[in-house]
Amino acid sequence: MSTRPPGDPFVIALFSEIVMIEQLARIRISRAMPKGMELSHFMVLNHFSRLGGEKTPGQLARIFHVTKGAMTNTVRKLDEAGYVHVRPDWDDARRKWVGISPAGQAARDRAVREITPVLDELLAGVRNDELRRALPILRAIRQSFGGETAADVQAPR
Fold first, then answer.
1. Whole-angstrom Cα distance, residue 88 to residue 68?
2. What pLDDT does 26 receive?
3. Residue 127 lies in a domain
4. Is the CB of residue 32 less than 8 Å from the CB of residue 115?
5. Domain extent for 49
6. Residue 155 resides in a domain
7. Which alpha helices (H) appear in the chain, and where do they start and end?
8. What pLDDT score does 145 carry?
9. What is the value of pTM for the model shown?
10. Mean pLDDT by 10 residues, the chain (157 residues)
11. Is 24 inside a domain boundary?
12. Which of 1, 25, 61, 98 sits at a 20 to 30 Å CA gap from 70?
């Protein structure tokens, strides 16, 4: 049970900061991406790079909180670039499985090298211990919004 008053100015200020950080980071990181790579492409490749395995486009859509159509479009572009492998589901012909390819891993790694200086610049005034303390709080806030994690989405059998 929250003891915060309705319309607590601190909570409003906190969420205003989160929204502004997201907007500014998206702009700066998008500009630093390798030519032809969109932030959505990087996010999918980074997801697979960190967690491996395969996901359906529907599972990816839930993880990233986008429509199935938007994710299908992202997967199509990644497939055309050779960054993911798309295979049929042997048990259900209507479904496909997506996984990162070696070229996708290399593209993700190249993107990380390109955006690292931007992230370092953006976070120059924040100590690592402060960032480490903030991460669990930000994750808890995301999860309170119903943000699924990759662990919440079933992998293929």
1. 17
2. 92
3. yes
4. yes
5. 9-148
6. no
7. 9-32, 39-51, 57-64, 68-80, 102-122, 128-144
8. 84
9. 0.81
10. 78 92 92 92 97 96 95 97 95 93 97 94 92 92 74 42
11. yes
12. 25
Instruction: List, as own/partner pairs, every contact residues 121-126 make where C-beta atoms lie below 8 angstroms and the sequence separation is at least 24, other chains included.
Output: 122/24, 122/25, 122/28
CATH of the domain at 105: 1.10.10.10
Q: What pLDDT does 147 receive? A: 63
Query: Structure tokens of 4?
Result: 């915060």
125, two tokens: 């005034």
Domain count for the chain: 1
Question: Do the beta carbons of residue 29 and residue 118 sit within 8 Å?
Answer: yes
Asked if residues 60 and 84 have their Cβ atoms less than 8 Å apart, the reply is: no
Domain assignment present for 30: yes
Q: What's the pLDDT score for residue 142?
A: 85
Q: Are 60 and 45 a contacting pair, CB within 8 Å?
A: no
Beta strands in the chain (DSSP E): 84-88, 96-100
- State how far the alpha carbon of 45 is from the alpha carbons of 50, 81, 92, 99, 145, in Å: 9, 12, 25, 9, 24
User: What pLDDT was estimated at residue 155?
Assistant: 41
Q: How far is CA 145 from CA 23, 29, 39, in A?
A: 18, 24, 22
